[in-house]
Amino acid sequence: MDLSLILDVDNLTVGPRAHGTPPILDGISFRLHTSEIFGIYAESGGGKTVLSRALADWLPDSLTYRAGRVLFAGHDTLKKTSTSTFKVGRDIAYIGSKPQSSLDPTMPVGVQIAEKLHSVRPEWNPKECRERVIQLLGEVRIPSPAERYYEYPSKFSGGMMQRAMIVDAICAEPAVLIADNITQPLDVTIAAQIVALLHDLCLRHKMATIYLTSSLPILGQFGKRTAVLHHGRFVEQQPFEQLIAAPQTEAARSAIDSVPRIWSAGEGPPVRRHAEGEAPLMRVAGVHRTYRQRKRGTFNTYRNIQAVRGVTLDIMPRENFGIVGESGCGKSTLTRMLAWLETPDTGTLVLGGTDLAKLSPRELIRKRNEFQLLLQDPYTALPPRTTVGRMIEESLRIRGGIPRKEMRTKVTAAMAEVGLPAKLYDALPNALSTGERQRISIARALILDPKLLILDETLSAIDQREQSKLIDLFSRLQAKNDLTYVFISHDLAMVRKVCTRIAVMYLGEMVEIADNRDLFFDPQHPYTKALLSAAPTLEEKPFNAADFLLEGEPPSPIDIPPGCSFASRCPKAFGRCRVETPRLREHQPGRFAACHLLDSAEAETAAA
Amino acid sequence: MLILEFLVKRILQGFLIIGITSFIIFTLLRVVPGDPVRLIVGGMAPPDVVEKVATKMGLRDPIVVQYGRYMVGLLQGDLGQSYLRPRSGMVAAGGQYVDPTKSDMAPVTDLILERLPVTLQLGGVALVFALLISFPVGIAGGLRQNGWPNTLAFAVQSLFVSIPNFWLAIVLILFLSVKLNWLPALGYQGFSYVILPALVLSVEIAPFIIRTLTTSFGEVMQAPFIDEARVRGLSRRRIVYAHALRNAAVPLVNLLGIQLSTLIGGVLVIEYIFDYPGLGNLTVVSVVGRDFPVIQGIAITTSAVFVFINIIVDLVAYLIDPRVEL
């Protein structure tokens, strides 16, 4: 292996242009050799992006280099001289965390990559550039690269676009590659693919790579030299395993602690209080929802986007039901149907014995007291110019029949219940924290005495401490008011912590429904296994994660292939999977899965 | 295929629009007070002559019947004949009697076809002038949002939008043609006659183009892909001209489609001031003379031009930015 020194960063200090302000990067020094992978961890806001921009001589106008040098193959990249041969984009390449907005939306992806290649390597003629780009698009496993070359950025999914951006970065054969949080916007299974791909490419193309991320577990895939960037300084540098095993600094320790735990979490999942002969609170039976979209290039044909395809489940009273899945799997549509904001095309929703479709509009408003939806983003969910008290009493006013005086006592009682001080009654929401806003949403729902709360990513966007406080609040409210929760989330660690029963959704269908412990320790469906394998944690997984790394992307909900919808990505798919759609069946008591593999496994045990 | 489908659909839609406009104009003209027959036969003619001529010309039939007759003619490319203009080109006056029911009156189609190219030339040249003024000012203003070019762009557009066109026309005639004798001012005998009216028209359109360009350019320059283009190794020139300009052009193209109505309004006044023999001039004269067939013809032509240009605009917007829905 070639081990010549390629990048030498010495005492790099960067700060705002204004004097007397503290620097953002403070005395960063490191050396990088060819083919070496250097992982840098920093929490969000820790100076990752500034560091990557500083290395690529690409600081925003508000920042300036205060001290230090960046030597690329012996040349100082920061000194502007006419003899300098160093070129950003050719010698150092950058991949960012926003693939979808990295290219001009009005030009085809391939054309733009070739344009870049030709402008940094003018000695290669346009035809060579085009061929090289197509070849590389194939190398990053973009299907039919020659056609994709002429497609526009809006036609690429996030994962595909990130692959294209990798091509954009490596096409000019850079010596150094800077990858700044490149998996941040991607789903876990796609992120795992991208990291594996990048790793492979770096070794094959002999690029020195600086991988900056705010997700510590991802660096474990490289396992090489790892640095912790904290408040603009490198506080620690060690090989990955040693860093995890024996962190030397407080910053590293808290970083390791903040990585979510799925399997080694101490507290077991909460247990549902059973009652004799109880009926499900909500029965969802065979709901479908298809959106029609006009097809471009035709007069009057529509294409059907099958968002939810026949979901059947029972939600028991006092249970914490979790629904997990990746983007585009239909969980938002399902959420909207559970909250009856959208009606299913076919299938029924029965709440406490009443079919929601059969209610008159007036009866429906009454019935809505029983099930309430909590939205994902507490910032956009609250009207900015309405006082907190008014917001909470809104739904009471809509229903009427309660004197004003009584309303105020009801509102303050609800506020007290969720832990909001009564003095906030007349406050506006703009100065409130995320946690407080979230509590307003909860109070708003609670004031109607609901039986069922539907929580759409409610606990995802907040920090760990606030999250555990809200989890406590939820379980207290549950004990007191006999509440049932449905959590819809992509966050496996959160679901592991709070849900008693979990459904896994893929392409509009439920592929597995099982109790918390069963699902996480003995998943049945290959997709569940893949999802768990890709979960970014530092733990030992209960099965071999490498067996379930997925290839490719989910099929489009417009052209759903026959047979099992997961067959195109499933590492264990066989002939039957591509012709016959597996039904969701109870293979073991309380554990449902839709997979032919389980049928054959059962047949084998039956035969034996 | 997509483009072909779009064209077919939009052209069919266009016919519908033209049909509706023509019907509205047709009805309104016959509902408003003022009998054209009275004007044709002259003030001194006895009422029974007025009735006789009117009946002969079919002006006493129900409006729907008249409209139907008119549409049948239209489909054959016949827009009827002017009430006031004889073939000789003179305007009929009270003195000599020209029988408007006879075929010695000028066909509207000829009148319009004669003047449409002249007006289109005026509009086209005005648009080119406006773009020549707006592009440097607007792009510079968009690139430096906080510098003097932006202030300049703002000043230019405020100034232009506040100048009344008739005043500017008179001032330009006074200086450029009377005092300096550089350009001809009145009438039309060649291309040089277009320049002055086109200048005045362009001052009317330019502020909107400058405004749109500065804002859309400023926005595009903030976009992440422009920022990232630098680290991808593209030159500043390529970033600005190949990418930023292309993206900023989409709102501009759409604006031009809408600005067309301003242009048509402006043409009326300016052609009249410069005695420029275009459609605008013809409109003013025909409205004053209640020359129904000519007014109708002009209305149909204008709406056809409008529909056509908007089809082009949408097509261009799509070619620039494929995300635009056709």
Automatic annotation (TrEMBL), chain A:
Keywords assigned by UniProt, alphabetized? ATP-binding, Nucleotide-binding, Transport
What CDD domains does its record include?
A: ABC_NikE_OppD_transporters (cd03257)
Gene Ontology terms for molecular function: ATP binding; ATP hydrolysis activity
**Which terms under GO biological process does the entry name?**
peptide transport; transmembrane transport
Chief localization: membrane
Which cellular component appears as one GO term in the record? plasma membrane
Pfam families attached here? ABC_tran, oligo_HPY
Please give, as recorded in its UniProt entry, the membrane topology of this protein: Peripheral membrane protein
Q: Where does it localize?
A: Cell inner membrane
ABC transporter domain residues: 7-256, 282-532
Instruction: Tell me which InterPro entries the record gives.
Output: AAA+_ATPase, ABC_transp_ATP-bind, ABC_transporter-like_ATP-bd, ABC_transporter-like_CS, Oligopep_ABC_C, P-loop_NTPase
Its annotated function is as follows:
Involved in beta-(1-->2)glucan export. Transmembrane domains (TMD) form a pore in the inner membrane and the ATP-binding domain (NBD) is responsible for energy generation.
Would you identify the family this protein belongs to, as annotated? Belongs to the ABC transporter superfamily.
Protein name as annotated: ABC transporter ATP-binding protein
Q: Which organism is it from?
A: Rhodopseudomonas palustris
Q: What is the lineage of its organism?
A: Bacteria, Pseudomonadati, Pseudomonadota, Alphaproteobacteria, Hyphomicrobiales
Automatic annotation (TrEMBL), chain B:
Chief site of localization: membrane
Transport recorded as keyword: yes
Entry keyword annotation includes Cell membrane: yes
The segment(s) forming the ABC transmembrane type-1 domain are 116-317
Q: Which InterPro entries match?
A: BPD_transp_1_N, MetI-like, MetI-like_sf
Q: Write down any Gene Ontology CC term.
A: plasma membrane
Enumerate the subcellular locations listed in this protein's record, separating them with semicolons. Cell membrane
Which residue spans traverse the membrane?
Answer: 12-32, 118-140, 152-178, 190-210, 252-274, 294-320
Q: Name one GO biological process term.
A: transmembrane transport
Which keywords does this chain's UniProt record carry?
Cell membrane, Membrane, Transmembrane, Transmembrane helix, Transport
Q: How does it sit in the membrane?
A: Multi-pass membrane protein
Q: Which family does it belong to?
A: Belongs to the binding-protein-dependent transport system permease family.
Question: What's the protein name?
Answer: ABC transporter permease
UniProt lineage: Bacteria, Pseudomonadati, Pseudomonadota, Alphaproteobacteria, Hyphomicrobiales
